[in-house]
Fold this protein.
Amino acid sequence: MSIEIIEKGDRLYRFVLSDVSIEMANAFRRIILIEIPVMAIDEVIMLRNDSPLYDEILTHRLAMIPIITDLKIYNFQQECSCGGAGCSLCSVTLTCDVKNDTDEIILVTSGDLISNDPKIVPVSPNIPIVKLEHGSSLTFEAFAVLGRAKDHAKFQSVAAIAYKFYPKIEIDERKCEKCTQKCIALKYCSKELFEVETEESNPKLIPDFWKHCNLCEACYRECPEGAIKVEWDDNKFIFSIESDGVLPFDTLLNKSWEIFREKIDDFKEQLKNLEIEIE
Ligand SMILES: [Zn+2]
């Protein structure tokens, strides 16, 4: 198994995963999506809420705010030495105390949440929570804990993760030579992945065509000579991960392998204890 990074931005990560089956690739996708622990607000003590939103709706909005997570320091609350009561190793307190003394309507945002751990804060200070009219107040205490998205989607470690097959396209030049309609196939490629030097020359694929090809097969269907063959590699996948910024990409990948290995070990252990009756 190998990984080749093709794009690494702040919030977008693309890489090629090679020498794996589609089952493994999908297991990897599912682990990143639902198994990696991240912080999210799980409990709110509402002290004063003059906003137009009910407490329940406000707390739901708070739970959806992505929060930067540190997996080295924090434990799951249920596994913590405090016994689940909540301590500095399993829970972060975010307080909000806003009073609108102006004549205008103001917007309370994620930037108004004050954390007791400066590293564990919302990924952006500009996420809207609620509007407050003149003279209104909003005061609450919120507690963020670690959780997994298989229990609740608010604990999702990425905004989206998807993979596609690695495309393999071949052009048979001998068939192109005979063609009188050069080149009808490249006109049908919505991603503009073919190029020709002159009107008379044979089409060529652009160098990074595989990054953009979505295997629509339009070139294959429209080529009058049947000169283009579209296939894909069964053991090579192009992954795209969109992050909301709660965890760095390196941590996401390392943690996903760690969880994957734990699952395999657990499976082996369970197999050992299994008694199979053969009739
Ligand atoms: Zn604790």
Residues 2 and 75 are 30 Å apart (CA to CA). The longest helix spans residues 249-272.
